[in-house]
Amino acid sequence: MKIVREFEKIFADECDCFDELSKFVEAGEYLSLGWQRGRGAFVQAKNFVGVIHLPSGFQIEILPKLDAPEKNLRELVVEMIRALKNFAGKDFLAADLDTAHLPLYEIFIRNYLEMVSALVKRGLKSSYISREENLNFFKGKLLVGQHVRKNFAHREKFFAAFDEYSLDRPEHRLIKSTLDKLLHTTRDPKNFRQANRLLADFDSVEQSFNFAADFAAASNDRLNRDYEIVMAWTKIFLAEKSFTAFAGRARAAALLFPMEKLFEAYVAAHVKKFFADRNVKIQAQEKFLFDAPREFGLKPDIILDDGKIIMDTKWKLKISEGDMYQMFAYAKRYGAEKIFLLCPPNADGEKIYRAEDFSVQIFFVDLFDMDLSMKALAELSRR
Fold first, then answer.
1. Which domain holds residue 146?
2. What are the tens digits of pLDDT across the range 143-170?
3. Is the peptide bond before 170 cis (omega within 30 degrees of 0)?
4. Tens digits of per-residue pLDDT, 28-78?
5. Angle (deg, nearest 10), helices 228-237 and 211-219
6. Cα-flanking dihedrals φ and ψ of residue 227, to 5°?
7. Is residue 332 part of a domain?
8. Last-in-domain residue among 112, 141, 166
9. Which terminus of the chain has fewer CB atoms gathered within 10 Å of its CB, N or C?
């Protein structure tokens, strides 16, 4: 396994699976290929964090570009994922997961196994499956043509079509295939034992031999509502899709998250909790840049006190001129008196920019001590 930070380079002489990794670059926007004089070819991480599991089994773990030990960064990534509003299965990223010692891929495996375990406890759903078989007794509908051909010399048999109430549904076939894959890829003893136990619950189910067909059948099944979260993760582990975009094919299982989205959701969740006594709106589009026609919506990350205070998250080390023009538009259209640009710490230091009727303050968020950051932000917002 190779562990890197955002925007770090992986050179060909540092990775035995460089050719395989290079092919993955072509599958999406998560990495880039380059060449450096004196070192040769490299693959560079972008602004995504998570893990890439290559078909060979080699893993690339990408962590946030922050000055902290790997175990702290891993814990932070899991905490941030829990804050994502519409992320499937986040509730199963339990607080007691051993994030300090487990690699991210094993954490996601544990998460999947917990979801499947909960599904089993609720009760796996059976459904009627249409089958055709040469039987020793008659049931269903006799298929005359096949019966005559197959049983000319065996009058005791009946070739019939019938419906059977069975667990052998497309969802269960896909889940069993995933459990089998995870059983052979996990390196964590607890994950291995749990995957092995769960496979016993799917003993009467065949593995999937056509992922695409089974996924299509599962999505059209009216009973599939209870399976939606598990199936979303199943697609990831069977290398069908990535969390970054539920579309397209990848050559590997990519469990990757845009860092700016994680930062935005994590900060918003803490602001909403800490400022519960004030009017907080998250991602609310209430104003437009122009009145006639009403176009170019303005949607700050956080609106506080009916627009008097705007907070916007920026996962970047340097604020651009374009960012400031955006803050100007927020101030004018929302009538904001104070705007806080919430950023990760950097060497430039916090700054305040003042205009005639509003101010913009760059505020550094300490992701490892959010309570302290929220207290400081609350104090500044009241001045």
1. 129-166
2. 667 776 777 667 668 777 766 667 888 8
3. no
4. 678 899 999 999 999 999 999 998 888 788 889 999 999 999 999 999 999
5. 160
6. -105, 0
7. yes
8. 166
9. C
Specify whether 35 is located in the same domain as 1: yes
Q: Residue 133, class by beta-carbon neighbours within 10 Å (0-12 exposed, 13-18 middle, 19+ buried)?
A: middle
Count the domains in the chain.
4
Tell me if 307 is assigned to some domain: yes
Q: Assign 3-class secondary structure to the chain.
A: CEEEECCCEEEHHHCCCHHHHHHHHCCCCCEEEEEECCCEEEEEECCEEEEEECCCCCEEEEECCCCCCHHHHHHHHHHHHHHCCCCCCHHHCCCCCCCCCCCHHHHHHHHHHHHHHHHHHHCCCCEEEEEEEEECCCCCEECHHHHHHHCCCCCCCEEEEEEEEECCCHHHHHHHHHHHHHHHHCCCHHHHHHHHHHHHHCCCCCCCCCHHHHHHHHHCCHHHHHHHHHHHHHHHHCCCCECCECCCCCCCEEEEEEHHHHHHHHHHHHHHHHCCCCCEEECCCCEEEECCCCEEEECCCEEEHHHCEEEEECCCCCCCHHHHHHHHHHHHHHCCCEEEEEECCCCCCCCEEECCCCEEEEEECCCCCHHHHHHHHHHHHHC
CATH classification at residue 378: 3.40.1350
Does 214 lie in the same domain as 119? yes
Q: What pLDDT is attached to residue 244?
A: 43
* Residues 157 and 230 both lie in one domain: no
Place of tokens 């460089």: 18
| Nearest in space to 113 (alpha carbons), one of 185, 63, 50, 170 | 185
- More confident position, 266 or 131: 266
Q: Does residue 264 belong to any structural domain of this protein?
A: no
Question: Are the C-beta atoms of residues 10 and 2 closer than 8 Å to each other?
Answer: yes
